[in-house]
Amino acid sequence: MRSARVMLVAIGSVLMGLGAGTARAITDDDVVKAIEKGQQWLIGRQGGDGAWPEKNWHETNKQIGHTEIALFTLVYTGVSVNHDAITKGVQATLNRGELGYTYATSMRCMALAHLQKKLLGEKRDAIRKALQADALWLCNAQGKHGDWNYTTLGGAGPYDPNTASSGRYDPNAAVSGRL
Q1: How far apart (Å, rounded) are the C-alpha atoms in residues 151 and 164?
Q2: Which of 6, 88, 89, 95 is the most buried (most CB within 10 A)?
Q3: Helix spans in the chain (H)
Q4: What is the mean pLDDT of the chain?
């Protein structure tokens, strides 16, 4: 037993020593450059229709949220509301109407909530109208035990623990549902 501990300490010491002197502190400039690189990567993958490619993980043809999370990411990381990618992304997600998925709807809520603070006039009004509709959908989709699943529990029949989120809140839906 003692020899196993000694061996683990020796291996750990060697491994920690291998990295000594090679690491450097990450600067604020490094972080800004990484964010900008990520923004450009996302913008480069946006389709001509303003949407981002979707990978359907379930047996569905519905859009499950890739456009909404990409839009939220760009908006949250400071891409201008007047940038072409944001304008096209907003139009693409609004053209989808009711998304029918908790994750996609909550991500759209967060993107629109962040955007609406930066817009004026008719654009802001359209964003707020969509945001209110999505927040209402999330409230109605909530199960009677206070949880969500991927689609809807509200009015969907009896509580089914196999499809519910095991009593845990989807944090995105919880935040968006309170707007």
Answers
A1: 10
A2: 89
A3: 2-19, 28-44, 66-76, 84-95, 102-116, 121-141, 171-176
A4: 77
Residue 28 or residue 174, greater confidence: 28
What one-character DSSP code corresponds to residue 145?
T
Output the pTM of the full model.
Answer: 0.69
- Distance in angstroms (rounded) separating the CA atoms of residues 42 and 24: 28
Task: Show Cβ contacts of residue 149 under 8 Å, excluding neighbours closer than 6 positions.
Answer: 102, 143, 163, 164, 165
Query: Within 10 Å of residue 150's Cβ, how many Cβ atoms?
Result: 19
Task: Say yes or no to pLDDT of 70 above 90.
Answer: yes
Contact 116, 128 (CB under 8 A): yes
- Tell me which residue has tokens 């519905």: 62
Give, in degrees to the nearest 5, the angle at Cα 92 between 87 and 96: 145
d(Cα 148, Cα 20) in Å, to the nearest integer? Answer: 47
Terminal C-alpha separation, the chain = 57
Listed in sequence order, the residues at least 6 apart from 91 whose beta carbon sits closer than 8 Å to its beta carbon are 50
Q: DSSP code of 88? A: H
